[in-house]
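pipeline: protein-struct stage 2 | run 1193 | Carbohydrate kinase family protein
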Amino acid sequence: MSRDTDVLVLGGAGVDTIVYVPELPLPYADSYMIEPGIRTRAGQTGDFVALGLNALGLRTHHIDMLGDDPEGELVRALHREKGIALTAVPQPAGTKRAVNLVSPDGRRLSLYDTSRAHADDRLPEPVVRKLAESSRHAHVSITHPCAFALPVLREAGVTLSTDLHNWDGENVYHEPFALAADVVFLSTAALTDPERTMRGIVERGLAEVVVATAGADGAFLLTDGALTHIPAVTPPAPVVDSNGAGDAFAAAFLFGWLNGEPPRRCAQYGAVAGAYACTVPSTETAALHRDELLTRAAASEAATANQPRGGITDRPHGTPRPVA
């Protein structure tokens, strides 16, 4: 069977309106003057993963539901501009949209419009199957209705990854994604015991690798029963926005993983790409290209080799300790 696509990205297409605010939480006031302006641009989690993969030279195809509306046209235009194949399934409710409030230190508060979806939304099974059968790997966003595509993807024989974002470890909505994927990404932000959650994903599901990102504290990698701390990488410029950092991390990790790199190096790639993403304003869509990623990763790896490691390093299963 020909696998002409490296990564099929499912879901996560949409539009964000970016509002830079003086602080978060934002105190109540009758009005605020937004000096940087208010910008609307295409790009939600699936879009950003697809952009990152494409910039790294991986043949990428994106499928999601889009409305016949101005927001949908922004998403289509972004894919045309970047040369990323897009299958747009009609969405009568309209294209997904959100408002992101961004503070001066780069933190973000997202307000999602849940009216642009229906409970019975589905990606057409024959279309998903055909795309999956011509792909090496599928990255599945946790946006509705991607959960219903998981069995089809498994039957097609592709490996799977997903990003659970700020899962609390208990919300049942996330479980089908967590337990079906070979590679699982998530954030430590809402976890009281990240290590327990990571090991639970491995023990109950199919994951070979689980990565928990922890912002300025780096990330934690669980593979072959060992939990390893991945130090944060110093951003190449001032941090202006954390939006898209997790998506950049996932794309760079998958670049390494699909090229047969060991998981620790894949995580190093992710840390480099995530740090770079924090220097890109939310109003822009930019991703590291392959040569720049490899150069920055080599420099970061050399610098890390000369420093003592902190945190958790290669502890075997059976000696648990919270990573928070």
